Amino acid sequence: MNNSRGQFSSRLGFVLAASGSAVGLGNIWGFPTQVASNGGAAFLILYLVMAFTLAYPALMAELIIGRHAQANAVTALRGIATGRATRLFGTATGFVGLITAALILSFYAIVAGWMVAYFVASIAELLGFEPLARWLTEFSRERNILFTLIFSGMTIGIICGGVKEGIEKWSTRLMPALLGILLLLIGYVMTLDGAMAGIKAYLVPDFSQAFEFKLIVSALGQAFFSMSLGVGTMLIYGSYVSKQENISSLGRTVTLVDIGIAVLAGLLIIPAMYVAQSNGVAIYDEMNQLIAEDRLIFTVLPALFDTMGAAGLGVAVAFFILMTIASLTSSISMLEVPVAYAVECHGINRAKATWLLGGAITVISLVIISQFDTLFGLTITLTTRYSQPLLGLSLCLFAGWIWHRNQLIEEITQGFENAEHSLFVKLWPSYVRFVCPLAILTVFLYPMFS
Fold first, then answer.
1. CATH domain 3-449 topology
2. Residue-wise pLDDT tens digits, 69-119
3. What is the DSSP letter of 182?
4. Around Cβ 199, how many Cβ atoms within 10 Å?
């Protein structure tokens, strides 16, 4: 490996960085209400099954390709191509992945900026600056621009440090902080009236819905997308892993951490919603569905914090720190995808590449803000609904069909004692060849025909 690329210095550093990439806003504001609205623990069980039987094998495809190539996505896929056609396919997949990661980061930075704004608003309210707090929580172009710039600057600053002094250093600080805040908030919410009703909605299964095909597809989609798959983030992180590490074990650990934090987020969000309901806050929308995503984070929970008096301000500060950390650990992995390509393929200094690409992505964010109603939803749909699953499919095709099987097995067995006798080596190559592409296609095509 070219040591100038950088390398994770420890197993823990990689696990925290990779799980930080996977643990984003979707885990905290999307997953809990998916569970509560779709059969409670029945959906949770399906999610766990899908995460280990489908998302984990797809994750391993990215990690194994990355570690084998020790390079960015474009170079990695070109390197395992077997002819001119597959080389072109690999090049196209790599570049589309770079563009997709950049576009996801462009809207993600806007949403993450809202989290930072609400955190500052909580501090302002705590200090008695009510007009400032109102401005920070009201939707406006000026506020969106300011806090998008702030969050983008934070992301750029971390990536400038490289793998060890940037990604790993901050991941090993931010992820324990995220987990600690999450546990503290869960402990506090559990003491409030209404929390047990939320626990029941979250953990008591309704098996009447468990075998609906729509629910199965939703669980599969949540498992796949919650692990940050398809855009090359896990591939590039895998490329910074030592050949002496057991890559399949690392992948399992990342999957467990991601699932664990998603489940813990449910133990916070759903009880908090029912606490809000017991305090007179509406938690169901006009269609009698639990309020989810942005309305949950920016309407229901702030209304709950308001009912808590002085304690609510402290809880609000902690909660929006939690959301900001979750945003940041994901955003740094997205920016690393195009930066790694620029550094390795064009010889650009890392700091310069980071500022150039980070700045260009921030400009895209500002364009989206200027035409928010038109471009925000469109960018989300194009990247997460179409591009991301097709990229995930392409990576599985590379691992399962294009890459020579002997080279694939040889890469898996590095750092994996007695690998040839393991269930993983016996099953995974065929699994990623047949089952994963079919599952991803199902998630992609189902909404079109349902």
1. Amino acid/polyamine transporter I (1.20.1740)
2. 999 999 999 999 999 999 999 999 999 999 999 999 999 999 999 999 999
3. H
4. 16
